[in-house]
Amino acid sequence: MPTYSDGDTIRRLREEQGLNLTQFAERVGKDRGYVSRIENGLANGSPATRLAMARVLNVPLTRITFQAPRNTVSKVAA
C-alpha cells in the first residue's frame, strides 16, 4: 500500500501548534481514526478534508497537498 509523505507534514504542523490528534480531528470535523490514517500515510483525505486541515492549521492548502506515494517510481520517456 502506498504511503504519502504529506501526512508527516500535517502531523508536524499539528504538533507545532500544540494540538493533540483528538483536538485536531474535532476541529477538522472528522473522526480521529481517519485523521490518524492520513497522518500515517494510509489515507490521502478528500480535497474538502485537506482544505479543512489547512484552515485549522492556518497554512495555505499547498503546504499539505497530495504528493506522489513514497514507493512510486517515476518513469521518464526516453
TrEMBL record:
Single Gene Ontology MF annotation: DNA binding
Pfam families the UniProt entry points to: HTH_3
Domain HTH cro/C1-type residues, every copy: 10-64
Gene3D superfamilies the UniProt entry points to: lambda repressor-like DNA-binding domains
Record-linked SUPFAM superfamilies: lambda repressor-like DNA-binding domains (SSF47413)
Source organism superkingdom: Bacteria
InterPro entries associated with the record: Cro/C1-type_HTH, Lambda_DNA-bd_dom_sf
Assigned keywords, A-Z: DNA-binding
Keyword DNA-binding appears in the UniProt entry: yes
SMART domains from the UniProt entry: HTH_XRE
Protein name: Putative DNA-binding protein
